[in-house]
Amino acid sequence: MKQLRLMSYMLMVCAALCSVSCNDDDDEKVITGEVLDLGDGSKENYEIKTNTTLTYPNTYNLRGFVYVPSGVTLTIEPGVILKGEKSTQGTLIVERGGKINAQGTKERPIVFTSAQAAGSRKPGDWGGIILLGKAPNNMGEQTIEGGVRSKHGGTDPNDNSGVLSYVRVEFAGIEYSTDNEINGITFGSIGAGTKLDHLQVSYSGDDSFEWFGGTVDAKYLIAYRGWDDDFDTDNGFSGKIQYALGLRDPQTGDKSASNGFESDNNAAGSATEPYTGAVFANVSLFGPVANPTSYTDAAGVNGSTVDARFQAALHLRRNTQLSIFNSVIAAFPIGIIIENDKGSTTQQWAADGKLNIANCYLAGTIKDFQNAQYWKESSVFNPDDAGSFVDTYFNRTDGGNHIATIADLKFAGDPLSLASPGAFPASGSPLASGASWTNAKVLSGFDKVNYIGAFGPNENNSNNWMSGWCNFDPQNTVY
Predict the structure, then answer these.
(1) What residues pair up with 83 in beta bridges, in sequence order?
(2) Stated pTM of the model
(3) Model confidence pLDDT, tens digit, residues 135-144
């Protein structure tokens, strides 16, 4: 046995030496070993100073704020695991001009997770990933939220910050101060040259995904059991997102209103260009309310176990021009809020066709529509807000929208299952076909699939893009 261990050690050393000596780039620094620290635990100026590769099958402890500055590329091999340190709020920040090359695979995704032991992990155990670029936003150059040093914003819509593909982010998301948080993944002014696909954010202590400006597109996103919003768009984000799943834990809402989508033009609600005009298509958004007939108010009375701080599937406000097509919106206390708060004209954008909700199904909500947010500390639904504008808008003749029950949608499994989301349409489901792509100007660049929602019928596992790389039980996974 001792000889076997010695031989394994010698092979590991030889492999490490070979990976360094065979590298043609003299600036490339290859980190090797079994368990290594990345960062010194500080929150000041720890930088990865040269092009660096994190190698499989190693594990890396992410300690403190780790910056990838301009001119440096951090490459992460498929299968690498990075564990965020709780005591130092480990966070990875890729600054403007820096790049991350995290190209995982279906068989070997890259995993960012908590350093806490299995069974004791919690949302907010570590910071998260912050990716910053030089694309436009409507607030100019600005410092990103979360207490980090870094700025984002510029004039290059095609800026390239690298690749995040087949990546999981678990138990991240911390509040640095009120309204100043690190999300599971934060995108600040990311350009269209960046590749984003197959990303799962689980148990985030704030938003799962948040975009502050930028032009980047993305596909195959999962927001799983986060605290605050699943998909938050601000500051003029104008990218296109296709195939996204949001799934909420009924007992875990944020201290502020938890929404599926929250979208602002900016915090002030000003009419500033570029507008937040992101376009989402093929989204399946499932909230916490499994049985709306037994859940009658936001306070969680009558035996309800739903956290009272959940609010709406779509909360569109402050002059946003966000659009969502061919999607399923289900099981939230409120379906849709389109709000003219802070003097904005959000409802006018909807009437003018600049904000679009089209060819979507709304199902299983307690209250379908509202014209303004209801959520305040210790409050309940506002019975006087009938959502008359939103009702008229959603049910307009040319909108193609539908109101249904979850049973009407005929899923092959339980779409609200936290262990194994069954969001695939079964035979006879209205979601299996009926997608509309008639708004050619807005919907250019999307895959013109026939189905509504994130998944098509799943014969022979053909439409299960979650297969192989996702994890719906990260709490008990031994890394």
Answers:
(1) 61, 113
(2) 0.91
(3) 999 999 999 9
